[in-house]
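Q: Predict the assembly, please.
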Amino acid sequence: MDILGYLLDAMTPFNLMLALVGVILGTIIGALPGLSATMAVAVLVPFTFTMDPAGGLIALGAIYTGAIYGGAYAAILVNTPGTPSAIATTFDGFPMAKRGDGGLAISLATLASVAGGIVGALALLMLAPPLARVALAFSPTEYFWLAMFGLTLIAALSVGNTVKGLIGACIGLFLSMVGVAVVGGDVRYTMDMQRFLAGVDLTSAIIGLYCVPVILDLVASPDPHLSPSATGGLRVMEGARHALSRWGNLLRSSVIGTVIGILPGAGGSIAGLVSYSEARRTAKRPETFGKGNPDGVIATEAANNATVGGGFIPTLVLGIPGTPPDAIIMGALLVQGIKIGPTLFTTDGNVVYTFIWGLLIATLLMLPVGLLIGRYAYGFIIKVPKTLLAPTVALLTIIGAFAIHSNVEDAQLMVGLGVIAWVLNRYGFQPSPIVLGLVLGSIAEQGFVQTYLIGNATGRLPEMFFSRPISIGIIIAALVTLLFPIWADWKAKRRAQMAEPVADEGTTIAPEIKTRDLPSIGFAVAFIALSAVIWTGASGMSMLGSVFPKTIGAALAVFSGLLIIQHLRRPAAAPKPRQRDAGANRRISLGAVMLAWVFVMPLVGFLVTSLAAFAAIMGIADYDRPPLRRWLIWGLTGLLICSGFWWLMANVLLLRMPAGLLF
Amino acid sequence: MHYFHYTPNAIFVTKDSEYQTLGDLLDYAKANPGMVTFAGSGSNSANNLAAVQLNAAADVITTYVPFSGTGPSITAILGGQTTAGFNYATSGVAQGDALRMLAVAAEERMPAFPDVPTFKELGFDIVGGAYRGVAVPASASEETRQAVSDIVAKINAQPGFIEKMESGGFVLTDIGYDKMDAFVAERVEEYTAGAKALGIIK
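A: Predicted assembly structure:
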């Protein structure tokens, strides 16, 4: 076995150290929202030029896999995916942390990430050439149906509130259309502002949609951010027992992640969503998903780390990067003088196999590294007082949104979307369908239009859409996911009826009556207006560019109309006494401070505005009225945090910081 | 300040494709208007422009299918999702024998592909691709502009560098600061015509 021989090459002390340092750096970078795997890899590529090719690759692969894993921390602890791959981790991870099981969630995420990473890396090691064919077998049609499959998850995420979930998805799909269209080349819905030409940045939108509402709620009440855990610590043994008892879920999610990783352009976020929805469908009690079911965390984290190994398969075998970090790593290989492509495994087998072993070792190192970092991260979030936690998290969201393109406009968009998301969420429009629409929109649109073009040109449009074997498989999976919650609901009701065969009139427990909700009708009217704007905006576009906007606009109008009818048919609610939410003032001032922060920053400078905003949010978030001495300590800590991050960004990441008048 | 190279547009088919030459492909396209599909990177891009230019020059109707980048469009060609692809010559280097290059939009045959004819040889006046150069802010002084141009020209003239780039599928150009205005004027003319054909300018 030649392959095993390369294991020894990978185990040199220097390579082991690279793997360890890479995993640590990657995990920390991934845990900070906005600092993504792509960025981590890009920043560190130049350092690898002086190393030998295999060592450099091991370092980059370790950073990549660590960053994908690190995304889980932020998802679990502050409901913000540290990387887009961890979107579905928030669904159950954050509810677990809220009720005091955050340590367990981190342990499970760590174990699942390691398991998924190993499956992905083993597939890369042993099956890369045959598996690369999967990438070729996927036509635009399959990408379209895959995106549709992802969207069916909305039905499961918004049980009992499906119409609002669908409206949210339409809004997300609309946001995904902003900017220059890949198909058709139209400039869409930019309101003639240059900032929207490149579209709505996914990462900053996710940070805004998920994290800003959390900060707003954080300051609104004196309750601790997360319930303190009963036992403390990460409960590693309990996590290990639970993860092992779910080996089927682990394996299925890892395989899904590997296969989706192979598809260029799909990536970790879709892998996480698909395996989450599969885990939910096969679960005994699917209704517990989204409320803190550990299996949701296992499924997502196993899948997204499996995409790392999976993504390297087309990169190394076909020379086609599976994910954006792969593209950068491919560039690094080219600089090293290694020619990527079909012949790589034979001509440079020593480099490739040494690298794959190194990736495997790095994945295993994630276990101790992750549990150690996780322990401190969890302890920090639990113990740190709210007065410091709220401004620190707010600072991280702004840094994250800014750092993606060194662009303040992304941070402005992030805060703006976040405030809107909080308002919408209050009236039952959850952020997850919006994010799903935003993530899947461009894939769905490109797949649809490409299929349409090819099918129309060759005169077999219906066959293209409905009679390719892989497509049929995905369609069936999508239908099952879509109909399953309805079926499960019906079965539960039936079971309840069987249990109480004859219920006397008057003794039946009245179901919770849904009453008419005027704000919802108001939102629906506003959305109908938005759909009119989408339609009129689409009229000037090319045929290719306008298909999708018109469809989404029509769908948005239909769902909004449904919502209005639904609410008009409900009984009017008894007028509630108007009372001001106790935390409302704090929420409003926090929102105002964050908006001011991002809009004043380019004028005055990053550090000054951040210090001022940090101090203001400390005041807003404080409930304890501590003595002056403690204020001084907290203030000093805030000063250190702000200037520390500023220094890190300006001097280590070499970002162009907004300087403005001061600094 | 300096355009230092370009990656010429090129037509690719898979190694198993029935089309051996550009002539074969165009004969089929003539007989079956619209049936030939080209995968390429993006709408209104260099690939898209070349496909439109070919339609006009060869008097055929083909269908251009835009993808989100070169990676996905090469995947589509390799997987047989489209008849052929309009991509850049660099993909021919990366894919080796997996793809067959039918014609390339360079002035002369490329050292990396001595057997691939240019469009010009085949009677179509199509030359172009993705041009790459360096720019400076408008506030830069004349000296800075010239200095930047000179540095890039110097790098571009190193024999080792030339060898590396040419074997990678790039065509080196030496359009310095002094030749820039004329070059840009030519491109503006060509692209304006292309933009009209693509329907961007009405």
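Confidence is low (pLDDT under 50) at residues 501-510 of chain A. The beta strands of chain A are 179-180, 187-188.
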